[in-house]
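MOLECULE: protein
FOLLOWS: sequence and fold
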Amino acid sequence: MQFDNTDIDVPFNYRHHCWFCAEPAGHSFTFPHSEHLVFDCSHDPLTLPSCAECARAANQAEVRSIWQVEKSVKVYLIEKYRKDLAIGLNWTQDELANAGFEEGSFAGFQKSAWFMYEVARDRVNFQGWPLVLNGIEMVNEELEREFCFDGVSYPGIDQAMEHYSVNFALDLAFLRRVIAKVGPKSFAKAVRFCRLYVGATPNEKSLALREFS
């Protein structure tokens, strides 16, 4: 399927960057495309610059708008970089620099870990520039659904809960119930509370939830 005039306007300072993650762009991504026909797309067809990795992830997103594609790509990147993002959950840059690993088997980790965390964080956090097609700026219908916590922007709170549940071995269902009770603004409090009950029985968690406020 071919479309005419689908290239978006690219700001000069982003002319060589991927719209999804800001890495160097050697490819392009068109949406909708022939491998996933969309009959109720909420915007006109468009083509934007992309790196090869994000283009592959984007091509597998069976959704109905470019912003939903972006969300799928971010989910992919969060999963890919799960261990690197976890560095920021467990260390500060100063703590890592002074961890005393210089001469041990973790010396390589100490040298590269924070850099890898920053690469992962920046790719996940990058917000593509406004999409302008044929002189008309398109409205991002997904922006208000993002959830930002501890320096990382997640496509939504579900991805943040999944990320923390994996890295801290939390019961995801229990974390969801706690956040439903205290609200997303108390996300840090909810995570700290759930960490107290790793390995607890279902009855213990239910009792704790009733008493938690």
Summary: Strands lie at 27-31, 46-50, 132-133, 136-137, 147-149, 152-154. Residues 107-125 form the longest helix (19 residues).
